[in-house]
Write a structure and sequence with these properties.
323 residues, alpha/beta, TIM Barrel, 13 helices
């Protein structure tokens, strides 16, 4: 959270929420879980079941659930909310899906086809699992030095090491296999034991219950680290994978990491690929260059009060209009 948002969060009283109920909002999450999990715990904090249930209650008290099919019209009603979930983690099926179903709420889930059915995993998730193993062994300096040498970085502290390791380039992800060998870790075995990702059968079950799915690229790369053609291929192939495997006729897509560096050329080409496509970013509350581009904000951080966050996002929208 930037300095401006931090300042706005401080002054955002939860009692101000009724003033901003006209705005339709699009909160997003990745995971809801009651305990720590190695492949996530070193990347970002997340809410437990009770905290997520509290969020659902607040949203239902102040907004009406938006049926995802209404996005296809290109016109959004006032005073609604739509929840979205990125990365296709197993918990969207085991934890989130039952809660939403019990509360009569539909949602959109964005998946990376390469990881569905747990045949492969996101490189960032492997990094987090490695850091958890390093934590268990006391962050031995000799091991950290060898990992730093593999990726050609030095570090000044354990925290600096973690920051640089998590931040390695997508093009260096193949080197993670060397680290796994060094740590005597078997990620194929980890994927089978922990099943971090959703399966095709689970997707079919959720679709049959009225939930929607969208692409999130094939392999979740930072798009700005790819060529224009690679970006376009990652995006369209993930949408086409859903169409071919599940027979859906709509096109939903959420940009991984951030949409802020996406070129206007790529956006135009995606809107030409399917004039009815709906694209989801994560730049907060604002209108974009097309009604087919929906901007979202995260409600995932467990230390942030939900009502205050929603107020803050609205204030930040007006701040941006002013400047």
């Amino acid at each position: 959270m930037g300095i401006v948002k931090q300042a706005l969060y401080i002054i955002s009283g939860p009692g101000f929420l009724p003033m901003f109920k006209k705005q339709t909002i699009f909160p997003y999450y990745h995971i809801v879980r009651d305990d720590a999990v190695p492949h996530i715990e070193n990347l970002y904090p997340y809410k437990n079941t009770a905290q997520f249930l509290a969020d659902v209650k607040i949203l239902l008290e102040n907004y009406r659930p938006l049926e995802p099919s209404r996005l296809l019209s290109g016109k959004l009603p006032d005073n609604h909310f739509l929840l979205t979930f990125d990365d296709g983690l197993h918990e969207v099926y085991s934890v989130i899906y039952p809660i939403l179903k019990d509360n009569g709420i539909s949602a959109v889930f964005f998946v990376n086809p390469d990881f569905v059915d747990n045949q492969a995993g996101l490189y960032k998730h492997s990094i987090s699992a490695i850091i958890s193993r390093l934590k268990e062994t006391g962050f031995e300096k000799s091991v950290l030095d060898r990992i730093g040498a593999i990726f050609s970085f030095t570090y000044t502290s354990v925290e600096d090491f973690k920051r640089k390791f998590i931040g390695i380039q997508f093009s260096e992800r193949e080197k993670i296999a060397q680290v796994l060998s060094l740590m005597d870790m078997d990620m194929d075995k980890y994927l089978k034991q922990h099943t971090p990702y959703i399966t095709k059968d689970q997707i079919r079950q959720m679709m049959a219950d009225g939930f929607y799915f969208g692409g999130h690229t094939m392999s979740h790369p930072p798009l700005q680290q790819l060529t224009h053609d690679e970006q376009k291929s990652e995006i369209i192939n993930s949408v086409e994978w859903l169409r071919s495997n599940f027979g859906i006729e709509y096109s939903f897509f959420a940009f991984p990491f951030s949409d802020k560096a996406i070129s206007g050329k790529l956006l135009r080409e995606l809107l030409e690929y399917d004039p009815d496509i709906v694209l989801f970013g994560n730049s907060g509350l604002k209108k974009d260059i097309s009604s087919r581009i929906i901007q979202r904000f995260s409600l995932e951080h467990p230390a942030k009060a939900t009502r205050k966050q929603i107020v803050m996002e609205n204030l930040y929208k007006y701040f941006n209009k002013i400047i």
